[in-house]
């Protein structure tokens, strides 16, 4: 079992013990999982968790580098500023965390990213629709929120 | 209301700027405001601050262009930094342009971008602000593409992109070939009622969209 799977199993174990509790704290879940390995000093699980956290933060940071969201790009002179929601860099398919500059992407790499984004969007959209339908059934329908 | 008055006051202040440092000062304040409103999650105010920044940058560009055209002696007479005298003496003085960049902490790259922004036709500039979010480089890039006979991308808004993308979803996800009855039967009563309420409204919207296109192409 990988370190990743071991940590997830610890989450599951702690979560199962608290199944009936209404509110669960991410901090306490993380801390309980971390200490469950009984390592007095930072061990491989802590090390793995820290690296994964940094990677997740780095991915989020890279994904946030768009012209629309970053003042520093307001002074840049790139053609992609025509489309302010584009990122500066995109993940490359089948690499472990390598991101490529927008202008250097090949068409297949770009299309792969489109497919990934659509997959995420569809997953999130389906989840939102399901939760909304459930809420409508439970509390009665609400007019659609948000406006163009 | 107060924000609107403040916004209008800043626009007027920019228009009345006669010196580069005045316009640059407003620009720097707008950058700080933009960052503040972004942190606060106030999108509307952030966009207004961005628009003020862009107007101030355009004004800086206009004033820099006037400065660039002035001879060192003329600039000295106006700015009071170059001494009139022989042409050799004049050329030994830093140019008004270079001095202005140094005193306002502006890089040559920034100066060149602001001047390019000043070259964008007024109508195109206003349209870019109105259809925001706009950036300095974005407006310049659009202008270059447009001037080179390329597609006019100024009007591509997020709303237009959304509509284009969702209509393509119908085709991409196979809904154009789906059986409507089957889909309706797979819904709860509430969901079906919502669909029946919205369907004619969406249909009317799409009809209007088609009509618009007919009017444009007629």
What does this structure look like?
The complex is a heterodimer of chains A (148) and B (218). With 148 residues, chain A is mainly alpha-helical. Chain A has a domain at 3-104. Chain A has helices at residues 3-17, 26-36, 44-63, 107-139; strands at 89-91, 99-101. Chain A has a two-stranded antiparallel sheet with strand order 1-2. Mean pLDDT of chain A is 81; it is low at 72-79. Chain B has 218 residues and is mainly alpha-helical. Chain B has three domains: 2-119, no CATH class; 120-156, no CATH class; 159-217, no CATH class. Helix content of chain B is 78%, strand content 0%. Chain B has twelve helices and no strands. In chain B, helix 1 runs parallel beside helix 3, helix 3 crosses helix 7 and helix 7 (108-119) packs across helix 9 (136-147). Chain B starts with a helix and ends with a helix. The model of chain B is unreliable at 77-86 (pLDDT under 50). The A-B interface holds A 67-69, 71, 73-79, 81-85, 133, 136-137, 141, 148 and B 31, 34-35, 38, 50, 53, 109-110, 113, 133-138, 140-142, 145, 153, 156, 158-159, 162, 188, 190-191, 194.
